[in-house]
Amino acid sequence: MTNLLITEITRMGPAFCVIGLRRNKEKVQSIRPVPTWVNGWLHFPYQRGEVLDCSLAPICGAPPHVEDRALTREFRRSATIGESDTVAYLRKAECGDSLQSLFECSVYENKRGSGAYALPAEARRSICGCHTQNLRLELCGKELRAILVLSSGELLRDLPVVDRDWLDFVDAALAKNRGANQAARFERFLNSQFHCKIMNCPHHFVRIGLTRPYRDVCWLMLDTLFPLPHTEWLEEF
Amino acid sequence: MARRAIRSSKGEDSFRRIVETCFRSEAGPSVPLPSDTEDLIETGALDSMAWVSFLRAVETASGFSDLGSDLNEQPASIASILAALRSPNKGSLPSRETKKGAAENVSSSAALLTGSSSVHGSRVVPSEEVDRAFGMPVGKLRKRAGIESLAYAGEGESELTLGAKAAEEALRAASCGAQELDWIIATSETHHDYPALAAKLHSRLLVRENCGAMDVGGACLGLPNVLAVAQSLIGSGAARSVAVVTADVHSRVLTPERVAGEFGGLFGDGASAFLLRRQGEASAGSSYRLGELLFGCAGQYAAAIQVAARICGGLDVQFDGEALSRAAITRLEKVITAVETRSGIPRASVGGFATHQPNPRLLTLLAKQCGVSSDAFPPICRTSGNLGSSMCGAALHAVLQSEVRNKADRRKPIFLASLGPGLLFGGGWLTPA
After folding, report:
1. Strand partners, B416
2. How far apart are CA B66 and CA A6, in angstroms?
3. What ipTM did this prediction achieve?
4. Which three-class secondary structure state does DSSP give residue A34?
5. Best to test chain B binding among A143, A148, A162, A178 (most B CBs inside 10 Å)
6. Cα dihedral value B176, B177, B183, B189, nearest 10
7. pLDDT in tens, A69-113
8. pLDDT tens, B122-174?
9. Cα separations (Å) of A56 from A5, A62, A71, A92, A137?
10. Where do runs of H (alpha helix) occur along chain A?
11. Contact call for B300 and A142, based on CB within 8 A
């Protein structure tokens, strides 16, 4: 039996990808529970910060997704902890302060357009936390993208944001029933209040993940952004 | 100011050309172009990752940096992109009113490059001697970097003397008197004293007292930076004649006592100068028209090269040669691609590439990566070393010299591309006037 603290719930097309933390002796380790037949969950009724009891079996996941474990028994919620405590655990898990240390490999820029990727054969893991000197979100052609500066001063641009809660927040912000100019109003929020709320939050933290290999590369994504959005922020714009 | 569709003399819609070029680059050359109104994401022509990548490529190639934001309430289609590019409602940069998506488009305030010069340190030192001075195995610079010799400043030579000599030669080449200058704009990555280099050049060249003097940074990106300032001054009507000068004496800064040979051994000393004049102030003759310049900063490579002065007088140098080499090649190729797309000038038809030259080995690699002959890159760094902010200028002068030997109607465009720590990047193009 494993106690898994759920830290990541990301949207991957129609499915969700989930990552949690488990204590392994003195270490805190990221684990990605997956159903035995696919890589994602079509239905995942849990929240981040919830501790789920589960049984996991090692599987031979394609590198660099070494965190994959097959779920052999249904989840059962056993406890819930707050956002700042969740982040405290995340800080004890895999962390990097430079591009090279994120996945213990080189990170390459897309020669054609935007985005950054790692090579599956080089990356040693597929998820990593990091501190950021600065972070900004923007809508680009209706897609949410992040730009952030790592502690090393290195910059990551145009990371797709796949954090479920943040994407739900964007959907709510752009809902038709919110009146006119939703995108422009949301952009104003991102350019003003958002920055204060995120960067001034004492438990501000991000986790960056790698996609499954696609055309021989794994793209970097913003898996998780703490603090999570609050519904009442929608009233501010 | 309004954005407007730009048509070249061939009647080609340059925005459409840019959009189609970027789409093919993203989706692959064999993928048929979708119809204008097709939603590229809904039909699966591009996934969301490729859609944003495509938009960014269009932004870079067109110079419209807020395109992605414009499309937040529009379908993901080529028609939406073209409409946003042509939209008269958005504010735009002054240069966009006179944007030359095609190189043939000319405004009355275009800047012409009418004279150029480049000088190198007079003391030519074999690279083996530099290997020894830095305590490296003899032959390392030649074998690893392809550097045969380095041009070091001789006794009595400095940024000021080298820069002044280059400037005087450029003025002479353009038959322009120093008193005609409205501005001197200088850049150097080794001159950190005050009075600044431009002020010293002001006195040395005996220009009018009311000629402005300004120093611009950017290290190895210095030349594109000073050209951009000069172009803006001329384009705005604030100046008619501007001298831009680069000058670097690395041999007195990057010494064996201060830095490792793998870094310091690569650099030589030199200067370059160019005279830019407003069209109409100078006869076209053998001059070149300065096209658009594009700039940016690829911060993901910021850690590859960092140099900071220590309080005690030393230098803290962080130099990840492998990472920097990879970044330099990738980014220079990307700049050349952006210049090619924006100008509409195929790289195969360019007379020469005036690029930053970190070392000869990387220059060969860059030519290969770009799919062009290495002969199109004047091999300055092989005999002079990396000249820092003067590297691009020395290369540009060499390409110009080579081109003016041709008959006027045979002269070809020139591409400019450079990098600086950060990783700053910039590029542009010049066409025969």
Report:
1. B354, B428
2. 37
3. 0.87
4. strand
5. A143
6. 80
7. 999 988 999 999 999 999 999 999 999 999 999 999 999 999 888
8. 999 999 999 999 999 999 999 999 999 999 999 999 999 999 999 999 999 99
9. 14, 17, 5, 22, 35
10. 83-92, 99-102, 164-173, 182-191, 193-199
11. no
Contact B300 A155 (CB under 8 A): yes
Test B57 with A106 for CB contact under 8 angstroms. no
Per the document, the length of chain B is 433
Instruction: Give the residue on A whose Cα is nearest the Cα of B423.
Output: A154
Q: Which tokens belong to B369?
A: 């990566």
Q: What is the helix (H) or strand (E) element at residue B235, kind and residue range?
A: helix B222-235
Band (pLDDT 50/70/90 cuts) for residue B280 is: confident
CATH of B288-432, one of 3.40.50.720, 3.40.50.300, 3.30.1220.10, 3.40.47.10: 3.40.47.10
Q: From CA B419, how far away is CA B335, in angstroms rounded?
A: 9
CA dist B274 and B115 (Å) reads: 6
**Domain spans in chain B, listed from the N-terminal domain onward:** 14-97, 111-278, 288-432
DSSP string, B304-369: GEEEEE-TTS-EEEEE-HHHHHHHHHHHHHHHHHHHHHHH---GGG-SEEEE--S-HHHHHHHHHH
H-helix or E-strand spanning residue A135: strand A132-140
The answer to whether the Cβ–Cβ distance between A115 and B49 falls below 8 Å is yes
Q: Residue B129 burial by CB count (10 A; 0-12/13-18/19+): exposed, middle or buried? A: middle
Residues B20 and B79: beta-carbon distance below 8 Å? no
**In the prediction, which pLDDT does B89 show?**
58
Tokens of B374: 């290495």
Whether the upstream peptide bond of residue A45 has omega within 30° of 0, thus cis, is: no
- The CATH fold assigned to B111-278 is Peroxisomal Thiolase; Chain A, domain 1 (3.40.47)
**Residue A141 sits at the chain B interface (C-beta within 8 Å):** yes
Are B165 and B271 spatial neighbours (Cβ–Cβ below 8 Å)? yes
3-class DSSP assignment, residue A40: coil
Paired tokens of A179: 């009146």
- A13: region left, alpha or beta (phi > 0 left; psi from -120 to 50 alpha): left
